[in-house]
Write a structure and sequence with these properties.
This protein is α+β, with helices and mostly antiparallel strands and about 120 residues long. It has three helices and four strands. It has one domain: 6-pyruvoyl tetrahydropterin synthase/QueD (Tetrahydropterin Synthase, Chain A, 2-Layer Sandwich). Bound molecules: zinc ion. Zinc ion binds next to strand 2.
Length: about 120
């Protein structure tokens, strides 16, 4: 198997419902997003996928989250905007365009992250 990974970033605010602790108050993160794509075979150019195309598709999704309060977005009015659910949101948004998408990881700090993949 071949595997590639890209990273991108966005900044946004959120607060958590049904949770007692610091994160129930409005606060912000500089989120790091990692996307892994796998393939058994490479394309004619010898790539899993062009990094440029993958970054463009990911950044179109992150653009909608950047400098927003996530709780105000329609999707996160119903779903708590935890790192886990943000990873799932990005995975599902990207999967329709990137069939060989494997894993999306969302870092909310330098030592805490959550990942989502179709098990
Ligand atoms: Zn937080």
């Amino acid at each position: 198997m071949y595997s590639i990974k890209i990273e991108s970033y966005f900044s946004s605010a959120h607060f958590l419902r049904d949770y007692r602790g610091k994160c129930e108050e409005l606060h912000g993160h500089n989120w790091k997003v990692e996307v892994n794509v796998e393939a058994k075979k490479l394309d004619k150019a010898g790539m899993v996928l062009d990094f440029k195309d993958l970054k463009m598709k990911l950044n179109e999704i992150l653009e909608k989250l950047d400098h927003k309060c996530l709780n105000h977005l329609a999707y996160f009015k119903k779903v708590n905007p935890t790192s886990e659910n943000i990873a799932q949101y990005i995975y599902n948004s990207l999967k329709s365009e990137v069939k060989s998408l494997k894993l999306v990881t969302v870092w909310e700090s330098h030592n805490s992250c959550a990942s989502y993949y179709a098990g």
